[in-house]
Amino acid sequence: MSVLLVFLAATLATLGVAALLGRRRFRESAPLALRGGLSVMFLVTGVSHFAGLRDDLVAMVPPVMPYPELLVTVTGVLELAGAVGLLLPRTAAWAAGGLALLMVAMFPANVYAATAGLTLSGEPATALLPRAVMQLLYIASAIAVVITHWRRAVFSDAPGKLIIALPRAYGPAEATHEAPNAGIVLVSRLQLCSLRHVPGFLLVSLRLRRALRQAPGALWLDLAAQPLTATFWTWSSWTDEDAMRRYTRSALHAHVMRTYRPHLQESTFRTLPAEQAPATWPEVRAMLDATTVER
């Protein structure tokens, strides 16, 4: 039960801090709060695998499983690694997914502790039903983190036309940007003339994505592709227009556009203030559909 209190307290504290800072809307701060709650919880439980409760946790390993001390050590390391991974935007989804699987794998130990009458720190282990409910809460929270970070990963605008989006890439200005509604957003749609150009364009798009991570004034970039229609979309945010222009006029970006311009069937771009920015991929695509094609 103490673990549940740690999770709830850390989640609410993170949500409160995000609200006080006023940097995020609720739909963004809620996943952040879950990340904070899970991170603190797994930091506490991970440490307990090495100090305080180690002997009790070793005793919880079902007898059918070999090397109980090694299992407790390995799961402790994984919990600590997951706690750190949850704090980093680039690894949060992977960490949450891994921890969800880890909780499923470790649940038999909770079943054994509840049915065998074991104790934790001198207190009886939590009964099976409430323990199962708490475990479902933690797993659901981890899955929610995965979904919110990958919700744009695969979607469809028509049967058989899947669009795949990469996880958001963050630029160097993201960590210090104080005003979420300030800056400029650039959205684009690029459709190639032939499917044979898709692999090459995907590779150079990934190079541009990596370059944005180092671009001054870059906040973040989302990249999506519909390979079967040879169509790519970008959705990026910048501290100001000058920063965006420096990136789009960089040697790498200019080389890519110069190389693929003859192979483009359509190219559509739109810039707008951050306060008018779209919030989802469907909104991005609807906005571009309503924009005059620029060639």
Number of domains: 2
**β-sheet strand percentage:** 15-25%
**Overall mean confidence score, pLDDT:** 86
Q: What class do helices, strands and sheet pairing give?
A: alpha+beta
Secondary structure: number of strands: 9
- The Rg value, from CA coordinates, equals 23 Å
Distance between the termini: 62 Å
What's the SSE blueprint?
Blueprint: H1 2-21, H2 26-48, H3 54-60, H4 68-87, H5 92-115, E1 119-120, E2 123-124, H6 128-150, E3 154-156, E4 162-165, E5 169-170, E6 184-192, H7 198-212, E7 218-226, E8 231-238, H8 241-248, H9 251-260, E9 264-273, H10 281-289
Antiparallel strand pairs: 1-2, 3-4, 4-7, 5-7, 6-8, 6-9, 7-8
Helix pairs in contact: 1-2, 2-4, 2-6, 3-4, 4-5, 5-6, 7-9
Notes on the structure:
This protein has 295 residues and is of the alpha+beta class. The protein folds into 2 domains: 2-150; 154-289, Alpha-Beta Plaits (2-Layer Sandwich). 54% of the residues lie in helices and 17% in strands.
